[in-house]
Each structure stands twice: as C-alpha cells, then as structure tokens.
Amino acid sequence: MRMQSKIQTGLVNAALGALTLTMVVPLLLVLNVALKSDAEFLNHSLGLVESPQWDNFRQVWIQGEMGVYFQNSLIYAVLASLGACLISGLAAFPIARKHFRGSQVVYFVFLSALFFPVALVPLLYVMNALALINTYYGYVLLMIGNSLSISVFIFVAFVKGVPRELDEAAAIDGCGYFRYILTIVFPLMKPAIATVGMLVAIGTWNDFINPYLFLTDRNMRPLTSGLYLYFGQYATKWNYLSAGIIVVTAPLFAAYFFLQRYIVSGVTSGAIKG
Amino acid sequence: MTRPLSRQQGGAQLRTKGRGAIWPIVAVTPALLLYAVFVLFPSIGNIYFSFTDFNGNVHKPIHWVGLDNYTRAFTWESEGLWHSIKVTFIFAVLVTFIQNAAAVIVAVFLNMKIRLRNFYRSVIFAPTILGVVVVGLIWTLILDPYSGPLIRIVQFFGGNSALLGSPDTALYLVVFVTIWSSLGYAMILYLAGLQGIPEHLYESAKIDGANARASFFHITLPMLRPSITVNVLLSIIGTLKTFDIIVVMTNGGPGTATTTLGMHIFKNLLTPGSSQGYAAALSIIHFVIVLAVVLIVQTYLQRKEADL
C-alpha cells in the first residue's frame, strides 16, 4: 500500500512536471533567442546563448519605437484601470443598497453584456461619429465601458458584505452621499479594487483588436500593435523580435509575481458571472 | 425598490429620498452612459447595420437595403460562410474537449498533497496572463517551418511539415496554442470546485474499500458537475468567438484553413469595398449560432446535473 502510493505520487509529479515544462520552455526559448547576436542566431539558433547581447533590448527599443508605445500602453492601462474602479465603484454602491427605483433592472442590464454579440461594426460607427479614433480618452473610455459589467459585478458583491450599520452611522454624522462612498466605502473595498484594477490593467495592456482598429496613428499605438507591426516589418530579426516580446511581457510577469492573488481572483470572478 | 429603506424608518439613513434622492442616480450615471455608448448601442445597433449598406464612412448617408446582406451571405457567398462555420466547430469542439479533460485531471493532481503544488499551479496559470499578440508571436517563432526549433525536432525524426504553413496542420496547431494559453484558467476554476467537495465523502468511501479510481468516478466527477457546466460553457462561448489569436498566427490561412467565423467577419470588416453592413449581418448570424449552441449545451449539461 505504502509502495503503491509512492509510485502514484511519482507519476503525478512526472505529469505535472512535464506540463510545467510545456508552459515554461517556450518562454525560455524566447529569452534565449533574445540574447543572441545575429551571427550566433544564424549559426546556432537552438544552442544556449554564449555571449548575451543585452544591447538587443536597446536596439529593439529604438528601432521598434518601443519608447512611445511603452508609454502609451502604460497610460492606457493605468487610466482605464483607475477609471473603471472609480466609475463602477460609484455605480455599485447604490445598486447594492437598492438606493433608487429600478436599481435591480440596471444591475441586470449591466450583467447582460455576456450574452451580446461581438459588435465591431457599430463600434466602428460610434468611435468615428464621436471622433474618438486615435485619442487617449476615446480608447480609455472604450476600455472602461467594456469592463463595466465584470467590475460592477465584483464591486456589488463586495459592497453587499459591507455592514449597513456603517451607512446609518455616517448618516447620523451628516455625511454626504458621495463623500460617504469615496471616503468610507472605497477604503473598505481595497481588495475588490485591487482585483478589478489588475483585471482591467492587464486586459488593456494585452488588448490587440481595439488598438488595431481605433489607435492607428503611430504616436498613439500601444505596445501590442507596435510589436505586431514590428514583426510584419522585421520577421527575420528573431533576436530583436524576441527582445520585443520580453519587453511586452516583463511588466505582466512582474505584476503576476507580486499580485498573483488579485490576478487569480479577478479571473475566477469572471467565471462565477458566467 | 425603496422598501428596504422604509423598514429602517426611525433610524437615521443616508438621504436617498426627497431632496437627497438624486445622488444615488448621479452616482450610477457615468457608468450607465459609458455602458450605453460602448456596449448597449453597438450590440443592438448591429441589427440595424446588418440591413444597411454602411461602408465605414460615417459622413456618407446610410441606405436601408433590406435582406440584401443576408441574401449575399446565404447565396453567392455561402461557400465561405459554411466553410468558416465548419472550421469554427472543429476548433471549438477540439479546444473545449481537450482543455476541459486536461484541466480536470491537472486540478485533481494539484488537489493532492504534493510538495511543489503551489509552484506547479503558478507556472501552469502563468500563460493565461499573456495577451494574444505575445502568445501568437512566441508560437509563430517556435513553429517557424525554416528555422524554428520544432521543425528541427520533426526533421531529426525524419519527418517534415510546413507546420503553420500547411493547411493540414495549421488549425490543429492553433488549437494547441489556444489550449496552452488558457488551460491554467480552466484549471483554477476546477480547483475551486474541487475544494468545495467535502473531505468526509472520500473518507467514508475509503472505509468502504474504494480505490482512487473509484473515488474519482463516483465522487469527484459527479460533485464537479456544476464546475464542469460553467467551464464547458465558458470554453464554448470563448472558442466559438475566437479570431484574435488567429489574426496574429495565420491571418486565417493558409488559404482559408484557419478562417473561423469570427475571422471571416473580421476579414470582411477590413476588406475595402466589402460593405460593413455585410460584416454586421455575418455578426448577427454568428450571434445566433453561438446562442443556439450555448442553449443546447446548457440544457444538456443541466439535465445531466439534475440526473444525479
């Protein structure tokens, strides 16, 4: 019996180890190529890098105009994330407390987005008609709008756990409605804010289709578009391209390393909604 | 809807009635506005645009063309439509089946008391945080038919293939890459489901002499049914809509080997001279298909849940 369970654990570890390798090896391959010189890549494309070329990162940064794109991506991700937290947090409180007539209908409308079709054509019309194409605020507002159903859902669930006695205490003190939400409820919602914030920030950082359609100006492009276009132009410069991939992924992995809990909880809350 | 408040009458409350009643509505307004402009209007507007000759230029008048776009889709351009529907279903079925089967097994393994548990879990989940451009480019490099690492291995064993450049293999490689990038997501959801199964069920089964395999089929799987329903539905919705990873990896090719319905719509959206109204009509057809499949699968899975 003891022997059998040891074999079992061994097999389980082997299977999980193999899967882990499948997940990691592609990333390591990219890192390996990113550090090779042109000559080393041509001669030994698979071998372990011999003399790491850190300069590749500078090259792709300059040649691929990554500086501008990086800055843009950062602006989009930060603003969309802050905006989504503020706007959906404000909306979630009156919905969770049923503070206005029809609040449950509004809540249902917010959640219904999951069943709606992909609607790029009308979106193209809206973005054009409102002159939102190639503007910072246009794209940020679009990303906030897209994230609303999930973020309102997360915040409403969280506010329901905030005791109503607090509301009453605040009312006795004569605290105004907005001041109450912003100074009492928001600080209590920190975990939910971290979850929504990471979810929206990562979604925006990774977004490809919307920038492809609505941020076509080279000064407005985010990193994803920049990398995609760089690939179209320099498909043979594997070392630079790989360095570019590292530039786009490094902030994601840094966030994952430090804030894994919130990232995972954001992902799972999306499923409960489904 | 104000009933919960009147119950507390006598006690103090935030002013949500009379002069202060306006503030809750003010708080919801920005969210509602953005939602209406960027989600509600586009979703409903799709129906309208599918009956027009809208061509992407908002300054030109839009004409009502009746069912023309739908006729076009179902008659002289029906070949492209049916082909893309077929590709979509192959893609969706393969990803949904393999991903969910693998994720259940991985989750069960990770739910055991093994030492590197958290490490495995973190690494297997990691690819899910990468976006489609990064995932697509990483695998385009690895699958490159001239100097990519995979073709070296294939050639080493005496085989040969154009990989993403071959209509026979491209779709299956996209299936693999999609599973690679989203397996961790399904795994986490199944793990959450597994942690909800009470421990005493396994203990009493053990007393009754059940082995690991019997506990898996008679306790774990039945108790996991609700998680399976959610996961399978999420996979189906996601895969039936997929096109962004395909844009990056193959752009629908070679030929039309990887042109899913979503990809087909996206191509038409960007083709100059092909009306955007036509793309809208295709989106409506797409939506109806997704809705029908989801309803059928949901009814089936819930009936199985109820059988227990």
UniProtKB/TrEMBL annotation, chain A:
<keyword id="KW-1003">Cell membrane</keyword>
<feature type="transmembrane region" description="Helical">
    <location>
        <begin position="238"/>
        <end position="259"/>
    </location>
</feature>
<protein>
    <submittedName>
        <fullName>Carbohydrate ABC transporter permease</fullName>
    </submittedName>
</protein>
<keyword id="KW-0813">Transport</keyword>
<keyword id="KW-0472">Membrane</keyword>
<feature type="transmembrane region" description="Helical">
    <location>
        <begin position="12"/>
        <end position="35"/>
    </location>
</feature>
<feature type="transmembrane region" description="Helical">
    <location>
        <begin position="180"/>
        <end position="205"/>
    </location>
</feature>
<feature type="transmembrane region" description="Helical">
    <location>
        <begin position="137"/>
        <end position="159"/>
    </location>
</feature>
<dbReference type="Pfam" id="PF00528">
    <property type="entry name" value="BPD_transp_1"/>
</dbReference>
<keyword id="KW-1133">Transmembrane helix</keyword>
<dbReference type="InterPro" id="IPR000515">
    <property type="entry name" value="MetI-like"/>
</dbReference>
<feature type="transmembrane region" description="Helical">
    <location>
        <begin position="74"/>
        <end position="93"/>
    </location>
</feature>
<feature type="domain" description="ABC transmembrane type-1">
    <location>
        <begin position="70"/>
        <end position="259"/>
    </location>
</feature>
<keyword id="KW-0812">Transmembrane</keyword>
<feature type="transmembrane region" description="Helical">
    <location>
        <begin position="105"/>
        <end position="125"/>
    </location>
</feature>
<comment type="similarity">
    <text>Belongs to the binding-protein-dependent transport system permease family.</text>
</comment>
<dbReference type="InterPro" id="IPR035906">
    <property type="entry name" value="MetI-like_sf"/>
</dbReference>
